[in-house]
Structure formats: C-alpha cells, structure tokens
Amino acid sequence: MALNENPPQLVGLKLVLATLALGLGSFMNVLDISIANVSLPSIAGDFAVSPAQGTWVITSYAVSEAIMLPLTGWLAGRFGDVRQFTVATLLFTLASLFCGASQSFEMLLFSRVLQGVVGASMIPLSQSLIIKIFPTNKRGAALGIWSLTLIIAPVLGPVVGGWLTDNYVWRLVFLINIPFGLLCAFAVTKLMKGRESPKVITPIDKVGLVLLTVGIGSLQILLDKGNELNWFGSTTICILAIISVITLISLVIWELGEEYPIVNLRLFGNRNFLIAASCLGIGSFAFYIFVIIGPLWMQTQLGYTPTLAGQVMAVVGCLSIFFGPFFGINLDRFGARQVATIGFTAFGFSAWMSGSITSDVSFGHLQLVRLLAGIGIAGFFVPMTAISLSQIKPQLISAATGLTNFLRNMGGSVGTAIGVTIWQNQASTYHANLVEYINPTNVGYEQAVNVLSSKGMTGLQISQYIDILVNTQAYVLSTNHLLMLSGLIMVSLIPIIWFAKPPFGGGGGGH
After folding, report:
1. What's the whole-number mean pLDDT along residues 454-483?
2. How would you class 510 by CB atoms within 10 Å of its CB: exposed for 0-12, middle for 13-18, buried for 19 or more?
3. Long-range contacts of 209-215 (CB under 8 A, 24+ apart)
4. Whole-number Cα distances in Å, 222 to 281, 418, 494
5. What DSSP designation does 266 have?
6. Which of 163, 318, 382, 451 is the most exposed place for a label (fewest CB within 10 A)?
7. Beta-ladder partners of 195
8. DSSP 8-state symbol, 199
9. Torsion angle of alpha carbons 260, 263, 268, 272, nearest 10°?
C-alpha cells in the first residue's frame, strides 16, 4: 500500500464501512477467545483425549496471543499498521480454516497457536486504526463503537459456540471466521488505501523477544493450568512461577535500558497511560470473574445448558450497545472521569444485585440483575481507552494499544484462573460449615428427616438428598461472594481514575 501524507478524510458511508470492517476484525478475535470453551467436551471426545488435555485448545491460543500482543507496536512500525492488520486478518482466517479442518488433536493445537500468533495484533490495531480515520472531535464516538467488540464478544461467544456445537458440529466454531475474515480484509484493503503508517525499521531486540516469550508463556500456562494441577502444590506450577518471575523481572530491566525495545515500557512513564492501563487490567480481572463464575454456577448447579446460560449473560450486551456509542459521543461533554465513575458504580451495583440471589432464582431474574452491567461495562472500556491514549503521540498509539490490550487480556486470564479456584475452595469451606448444623440436636434437621421419612425415603437416601441441598447452598454462597467481590473491585477504582489529568479528548492527543 502506498503511503499518502495527506489522504482525504473518510466521510459518510465509507467511514461507516471502514469502522464496521475494523470492528469486525476485533470482534472475531475477541470472540475466538471464548467461543471454543463450550465445545471442549465435543472436541476432546472426537479426538479421544482427556478433558484435561482438551483444555490445551484454550491454553495454546491464550499463551501465543499473550506473547504477541505487546509486539503490536514493533510489528506496526516494521510493516505498516494497515498492512499488518490486513495480513494478520488473512492469516488468522487461514489458521481458523486449519482449526476447523484438523484431522488430529496435534494439528488443532498447532492451528490454535498459529491463530494466537498471527491474530494478536488485530485487536489493538483495529483500535488504533479507528482512531486514525476519525477526526479528533469524533474519536470518543469511535472508541465507543470499538468498545462494543470487547463487551459483547466475551458474552456472545459461549452462546454462539454452544448453539453451533449443540445443533451442528464443533468445527463450525472455527470455520465461521472464514467469510467474515475475508470480508474484513477486503474491506480494509479497499477503504484504507493510501493510509499506511510510515515504516520504522529498527533492529530486532532478540534478548527482549526471548525473555518476553519465556516469561509470558510460563505465566499464561501457570494461570491456565494452576487450578487443574492444584496450584503451588504442583512442582510444575512452582517451576513455571519461578521461571516467569525471573524472566519478567529481567525483561523489565532489559527493556528499560534497550535503545530499541521490543516492548516500549517507557509508555508507563506517562501518567494517564499508567492510570488507565492499570485500571483496564484490574477492571478486566473483575469483569471476567463476573462473566465466568455466573455461567459456571448456572451450568453446574442449576442444570442450565451452555446456550441457556449464555442467554442469561447476553443481556449484559443489551444496554451496552446503546451506552457504548452514547458515552463515546458525549465523552467530552460529560468528562471521561465522570463517565468512568458512572460505569464503575453501575457495574458495582449490578454485581451486588447478581450476588444477592438464592438457589430458586428464576431465569428472568438472573437476566434482569445483569442488565445494568451493560451500562457499567460501557462506562468502563470507553473512558479508560480514551484516557490511556490522551497524551500518547500518534506514532506510539499502536504500541500503546498493544500494551493496554495485553493488560486487559492478562487481567482476564488472572480473573478467570483465580476466580474459579476461589469459587471451588469457598464452596468446600461453606459446605463444611453448613454440615456442622446437620445433627440430631438441630430441630429443623429433625423435622426435615421426619418429613422425608414419611415420603418413604430410606436413611441413605435422606443423607444423600440433604448433602445435595447443602452443596447447592454452598455454591450459592460462594457465587454470591465472588460476584460481590467483582463489584467491589470495580468501585474501588473510582478514586484512582480521578488522578488522571485532563484534557482527554478521544485519544491520541499527544498533548
């Protein structure tokens, strides 16, 4: 693509189509993180591998993407941002074809790694390119539209994945990317012609690349396999932890002293970037607890199918479809910190309501208490993105979006891993505490035994039935505790974001 120093401003239909195309690329990539989760039992069954082995379908993608996300700025400088996005989209589409056509489990894992490696830059570059094509006074609206991909895709993924697997075949979970990937690459190539960023050819930071690969790879595997391997009771997890700590500390030291770092850590010297990027990482930790624990509880304790649990969570995206663009358009009028405060508060209130349920809760109530979260998440991603980029020079936006999306990704991984572990451990603790009340001196227990005996149940049947009730209540208590915790974490970010310094604009101000 030829570089044009002053390309004409995209307006009207062309601007709309370019925005949709770039948003589609980001949406595909985020969706692929969660869409395969519900298909793991079918995949493991088809390839005759254990459920534990089957989880490598998720881990392999997460590890490779986590490693490559911080490299976005370097790749965009080396090849040009438009070219890098287009090629990444085409290669991601090809890797999706390989996933869907895999004839062995090993081929599927290789294809998933390839997906993560080639597609990691799609998300941050779609963000930076959308900012690039919008005039400064409309960048808030652009960020509002782009943020919908981060909000809706993680929620919609299990719904689409469950529906395709239940009604057709798991291979469609990957093959569905092909037409959308080709359409996205074609549209971006045509609409972004002449808008290539100038190339910046710098030496490859080989030491930084090795440290990044080993450190982030070890950390991501640790997070994905920690719960399965009993965390630090496992020698494997301990070794991974030691390797990741040593290599990541070494990476920070090396990159800060490197003239041409593979990851530009100096961006954290910018006050607004540091505050917003940190809030994105911590907020994503809370968000993923919210979107993972709820459906997990519904499926294991309420007997919901993946599709039904997905329908409950899908309402999170309902209000966000409106409030994402609304907050973006009015970001300058309301103020980014004010919008963030509204978002954090709304999410906290929704999480509190979601964490105040009982075991006989209805499907409608589960949807209703999650409706408000749509406002919260829209009011989280939109202003955080704008604040993070508000003082970043235009030539560094790709590097900045790569780092913020990396922190968002890692926050989600940590939230998922720690959330599931706490959920299970707390349920066991609550179960043990509740069992203490089951004894002949408890009048309520004796009355329940008498009622069940009068219905013809044997002593063993009564014990098993009561244990099921206790276990159900234990998981309700654990679920409520975690959902409330996720809301508390979000609300605790409110005072932090007020340390950010205006003006914010729509990002990429370089002021």
Report:
1. 83
2. middle
3. 209/71, 209/262, 211/247, 211/248, 211/250, 211/251, 211/254, 212/67, 212/70, 212/71, 212/251, 212/262, 212/263, 213/67, 214/243, 214/247, 215/243, 215/244, 215/247, 215/248, 215/250, 215/251
4. 18, 11, 31
5. G
6. 451
7. 3
8. P
9. 110
Q: How far is CA 373 from CA 144, 338, 356, 357, 364, in A?
A: 16, 17, 15, 16, 15
Sorted by sequence, the CB contacts under 8 Å of residue 98 that are 6+ apart come out as 107, 110, 111, 114
The DSSP call for residue 242 is: H
How many residues in the chain?
A: 511
As a dihedral over the C-alpha atoms of residue 68, residue 72, residue 77, residue 82, rounded to 10 degrees, the angle is: 110
Single-letter code of the amino acid located at 316? V
Is pLDDT above 70 for 2? no
pLDDT confidence of residue 506? 52
What's the first-to-final CA gap in the chain, in angstroms? 30
Query: How is residue 349 written in tokens?
Result: 């209130």
Between CA 53 and CA 47 the distance in angstroms is: 10
Both structure tokens of 229: 């391997």
Average pLDDT rounded to a whole number, residues 365-389: 86
